[in-house]
Amino acid sequence: MNVARPAGRQAGRTVLLLAALAVCACESDRNPNEPSPIPSDTEYFTAVGASDAIGVGASIVCIPFTECPNGTGYVQVVRNRLTDDGKDVTHVNLGIPGAVLSPEIQAIGDALGRDIFANFLERELPFVPRDSTLVTVFAGGNDVNTIGEALERGFAGLDRAGYVSTRIQNFGRDIRMLVSGIRERAPEARVVVLNLPNMAAMPYVSGLSLDRKRWLQMIAVGFSAQINTTQTLGARVVDLMCDAAFYQPAIFSSDGFHPNDAGYAYMAERVYAAATGSIPAPAVSCPQMAIF
Length: 292
Hints:
Layout: H1 14-29, E1 42-48, H2 74-84, E2 88-93, H3 103-112, H4 120-123, E3 134-138, H5 141-152, H6 160-185, E4 190-194, H7 210-228, E5 236-238, H8 261-276
Parallel strand pairs: 1-2, 1-3, 3-4, 4-5
Helix pairs in contact: 2-8, 3-5, 5-7, 6-7
């Protein structure tokens, strides 16, 4: 399947050094054993993610692990919306470009020679501040591409369907582990999780064969279904999979993978709605799940 690796997803190991410095400072300032009551006009907003969290593809891309109030990615737009609401917002951005969800998928990426330097479970979850009141999570895009390339490179042997099914089940185990871990670390937080769109319908894979698109569709739809199960853990799931508006080519940057300013603004609208009110549960089925 060997899909192109979109620009902006390469992150040197210096990213991890910066992460360690940034999150250690964060923990030292905001990690009480018994969190104090948080005033209603205060928001401690933590973002867990990959290149999306710093707005790669937007007109203003942020430096990792900074608040970056002028950024035009969805995380930065949400932060500013909360500030406009009169909230005193402290923002911790844990996003690491190129990161995947789990050590398992990172190991597959390493075997493929992909530039994956971190995973959410080991490099982001342990640093979620305990007094976070809002945590956003967007996981799985890099994972879909990694598993897609593994299929193309023969990692599945003769049983591609079985290989994909196992990766989907393991992704579900790990996304629930991530959300459970966030809730254990920050029990007062509202946790907003975005599921994945059908990545086989995104511009960056438009040149792939129908067979390859079908495998990417299977992986993305399966991962999204697993993300949806985090509702049972109290997460609020933003449904990108079944949102027809998220399939417009005009909302993607030139790499065809990351959103542009318009795409991130739309994501921010959906995340803000989930963070500040009730949203519908993600659809169980929709036409976007079976485009190919």
